[in-house]
Design a protein that fits this description.
Two copies of one chain form a homodimer. Chain A folds into two domains: 8-61, Arc Repressor Mutant, subunit A (Orthogonal Bundle), CATH 1.10.10; 72-191, no CATH class. Chain A is built from eleven helices and no strands. Chain A has helices at residues 8-30, 37-43, 49-55, 58-70, 78-82, 86-95, 106-113, 118-138, 145-165, 169-172, 176-191. Residues 99-103 of chain A have low confidence and may be disordered. At the A-B interface, helix 8, helix 9, helix 10 and helix 11 of A face helix 8, helix 9, helix 10 and helix 11 of B. Chain A binds a DNA duplex through residues 7-9, 11-12, 15, 36-38, 46-53, 57-58.
DNA sequence: GATTTCATTATACGAGCGTAGACTGAGCCG
DNA sequence: CGGCTCAGTCTACGCTCGTATAATGAAATC
């Protein structure tokens, strides 16, 4: 209540943001095909046509949601890469010990849950390739960088998939500290070999 | 041309098998929501109603497809577990060096591509839990068995996801021998710790 | 205060979905 | 041969989907 008179254009921007947020949550929870524009719009408190008005189409909304949620640095931040114990920092970020308030890494969920749709899968592939290139050129510097970066992504993706998407209890309800302890040597092994490289 | 007079019941069984096969291929390629019964039936050379006749419903067909494709021992065979160098055996099985003629591990693809659907996701979760229990009780015997088994599954799933579903070139086109060499120490690390356990 | 603008809704269309029910026609058996 | 069985098809229903078009009503402008 109270303050802002909320000019018309501001209200429009708020509506747009509400749809974007609702879309992000909905896509993360049910995937591209699993939710309709009516449901997304309803959660944003508007009608279905608002999606088309502000994003052109359902596909347009999805694209913007993916781009937006991938803007989060995932775990490939420069400070992470420069840390003395990279592996543990990555592990902690992956498990979510840093506990950012926002929903953690739901960009992955969105992509994985949407692999059934053709257009969504195309977008997902593009983002994955991009993340792979970033990992290959900036994190891994030994052995077979491309393959190692891909395995690193596989590990991250598999962990997210099993814990968040599939909801595997052994990961979802596990003690975060234990997960970090188990993940750290794994990540270290991917990023820096112990033999013949 | 030629031989079998193909009795009526045999023809029925053949049709059923054709639908099951078409469903397996279709679900693996497009996910549960990504393909309709008409398309599946058409690929099997019959009409859509045959799906309901033989499997009760689309969901019934999916369940049977999943059960059928999961009958493949994935990589948790007794001989694998008993091998002296378990990790390498697992890695080779995962990469597919053993090159079974059938489509490799498409059970994973079916599950991953179908996570958008509610019923499909439920079935997927059941299968994953089952695989996790098997891994936890029969493969991992140190440290935190449940968490380690879950991470093992994560690694396998992530690798399959990135290589087969997402089609990440760095994995799909990589030299299998290199992949095995990189995966072996990873799997060994998951299954048998190097420190404090 | 009258007029224009525009965020939003209401209604509807066409397509595709899964599936129910009636029908068809060829193989089986007396 | 004549009746029955049953694999398979045809048609149609109810539903939901994404989205185009027209109407509404309050804020913005003059």
């Amino acid at each position: 209540m109270s303050s802002s008179p909320l000019k018309r254009s501001d209200k429009a921007a708020a509506t747009r943001a509400a749809i974007l947020s609702a879309g992000r949550r909905a896509f993360a929870a049910h995937g591209y095909d699993g939710v309709g524009v009516r449901a997304i719009a309803a959660e944003a408190g508007v009608t279905a046509m608002m999606v088309n008005r502000y994003f052109g189409s359902k596909e347009g909304l999805f694209g913007e949601v993916v781009t937006d949620s991938m803007r989060d640095p995932i775990i490939l931040t420069p400070e992470n890469m420069a840390a003395p114990d990279m592996a543990r920092v990555f592990a902690e970020a992956l498990v979510g010990i840093t506990a950012r308030d926002a929903e953690p890494l739901d960009g992955f969920q969105i992509l994985f849950r949407s692999t059934g749709s053709e257009t969504a899968a195309r977008i997902a592939r593009e983002r994955i390739e991009h993340a792979h290139q970033a990992a290959a050129t900036s994190v891994v510097r030994v052995g077979h960088p491309s393959e190692r970066a891909a395995l690193f992504l596989s590990l991250v993706a598999g962990f997210q998939l099993m814990r968040q998407v599939m909801g595997l209890d052994a990961l979802a309800k596990a003690d975060p500290a234990v997960l970090v302890d188990l993940l750290t040597p794994l990540i270290a092994e991917v990023l820096r070999p112990t033999a013949r490289d």
